[in-house]
Design brief:
The protein has 8 helices and 18 strands. By secondary structure, the chain is of the alpha+beta class. The two termini are 22 Å apart.
């Protein structure tokens, strides 16, 4: 939660709610810039709108030129694709569509689960240039919201705000002299918390199977090598220097052991399993309720 007395600018974008909290009310031009950045990101990456930049690759093979921040997104996805042995990939969109999590939100599977195409077979992503040799459905939902959190934080810093909390429906970036206390949402009951954590000049992101779930055992966190929703882990939280890494790692923890991720990334973490057990890293500065 932001500090008492702070001003909060709330709005909706990329299909979720945002709260940007600062000690003083944001100037109108800063609010406009924040809204414009969210709108631009959605127009670039959304697989749910036919006029987005990535939608062109779903219609036919070709090449698209992305904004500069696509380079950082590429690096994170490339590392996690390798560490997960293909289980985490930006090509998972076709598998999600097949299970019913499509542009029309039908939430009705059109067939049995299907693996995503292998990155090395169909996609050449070189920084800001993406070339597909076949029609592909890109989905950067495992890391995109986190990157957008970082972009909004960067805009606030450019506008002279050193104390802030950007909260994109649970994916957060904090900056300032006083830490904030954040409740960790219960994976089966959004009205309850399983613990609290202190967020101090860092990012905190979460991923949970219950956030986008439908049908019998269907949810949005898939193993791309099978196209099947992952059933062993139900919720994860990660803390890192930036929200792009924290968001991506929260998804990666569903399919990759923490010690493997720690060979590349510096982060702390908490995992909750479907049997109710929980494991966490030594650096995860929080308190779990009994």
């Amino acid at each position: 939660m932001p500090h008492p007395g702070w001003s909060t600018f709330g709005f909706d974008g990329i299909g979720t709610h945002w709260d940007v909290s600062t000690p003083e009310q944001l100037a109108p031009e800063v609010r406009k810039e924040l809204l414009g950045t969210v709108a631009d990101y959605d127009h670039t990456y959304s697989r749910f709108r036919p006029d987005s930049l990535v939608a062109a690759l779903a219609k036919a093979p070709g090449t698209i030129t992305m904004p500069r921040h696509a380079g950082a997104l590429h690096r994170v996805y490339a590392d996690l694709y390798r560490l997960s042995r293909g289980a985490m990939t930006p090509l998972v969109g076709s598998s999600l569509n097949r299970l019913g999590y499509d542009a029309a939100y039908t939430l009705v599977p059109s067939g049995t689960p299907e693996p995503a195409p292998r990155w090395e077979d169909v996609l050449d992503w070189d920084g800001t240039t993406i070339t597909a040799s076949d029609a592909v459905v890109l989905d950067i939902g495992a890391a995109g919201k986190g990157q957008l959190v970082d972009l909004l934080g960067g805009l606030l810093r450019e506008a002279g705000h050193t104390d802030f909390l950007v909260d994109g429906s649970g994916d957060m970036l904090h900056s300032g002299s006083q830490a904030v206390t954040v409740a960790l949402e219960h994976p089966y009951n959004p009205k309850q918390a399983i613990g609290i954590v202190e967020l101090d000049n860092a990012a905190l992101c979460a991923s949970a199977a219950n956030r986008r779930a439908w049908g019998d055992g269907l949810h949005h966190v898939l193993d791309a090598t099978t196209g099947q929703p992952i059933q062993t882990t139900v919720a994860t939280w990660t803390m890192a220097e930036n929200a792009l890494a924290a968001d991506a790692l929260a998804t990666a923890l569903f399919m990759v052991e923490p010690k493997t991720l720690e060979t590349v990334f510096d982060f702390s973490w908490l995992r909750v399993f479907s049997n109710g057990a929980a494991t966490f890293s030594g650096g995860f500065e929080g308190r779990l309720f009994s």
